[in-house]
Amino acid sequence: MRLGNDVNGVILLAPKERPQLDTVAVQALCDELGPHMAEDMMCRAMEELSLRLCQMHDLAGSGPVEDLHKALRGLAAIAEQIGLLGLARVARDAMACVEMGDPVAQAATLARLLRVGEGALTALCNLQDMPG
User: Fold this and answer.
1) What is the mean pLDDT of residues 113-130?
2) Cβ–Cβ under 8 Å, residues 120 and 90
3) How far apart are CA 23 and CA 29, in angstroms?
4) Are 41 and 67 in contact (CB under 8 A)?
5) Are 33 and 26 in contact (CB under 8 A)?
6) Is pTM beyond 0.85 here?
7) Which residues pair with 3 in a beta bridge?
8) CA dihedral 86, 82, 80, 32 (to 10 degrees)
9) Domain of life, per the record (predicted)?
């Protein structure tokens, strides 16, 4: 986390986390499916993660908590499958907040999940753009 400028006595926080990518899991996918099928699966998983992050955002504001919990569980499973361990962990943390019924912790953890999810998707896009 970086500390920002002091504005009228208030320090602005700029939380930033680096995406955690389990390269062993990614390599296992490549070994199991072959490079082309693994890349196709990663692309589909990225699309699904993006959709679920948007769905989670919508559900957090007005949806039933059961649907939010289900979306978080699916997001965690997909993230873990493609090696995004940090994203999976934060999704499980958000699930715990939903289960506890703590709206403040839930809001904070969901905001973190969106930040981590965006960073993870960006990192995967950058990884796919690399030659090799």
Assistant:
1) 80
2) no
3) 10
4) no
5) no
6) no
7) 13
8) -140
9) Bacteria
d(CA 117, CA 41): 18
Please give the share of the chain, as a percent, with pLDDT higher than 70.
Answer: 83
With b for 16 or more beta-carbon neighbours within 10 A and e for fewer, the 94-111 pattern comes to bbebbeeeeeeebeebbe
Distance CA 123, CA 132 (A): 16
pLDDT tens per residue, range 25-58: 888 888 998 988 988 888 899 899 999 999 888 8
Q: Which amino acid is at 56?
A: M
pLDDT (tens digit per residue) in 49-67: 999 999 888 888 887 889 9
Q: In this structure, are residues 4 and 14 in contact, taking their beta carbons and an 8 Å threshold?
A: yes
What is the structure's pLDDT at 23? 81
Dihedrals φ, ψ of 63, to 5°?
-90, 165
8 Å CB contact between 18 and 119:
yes
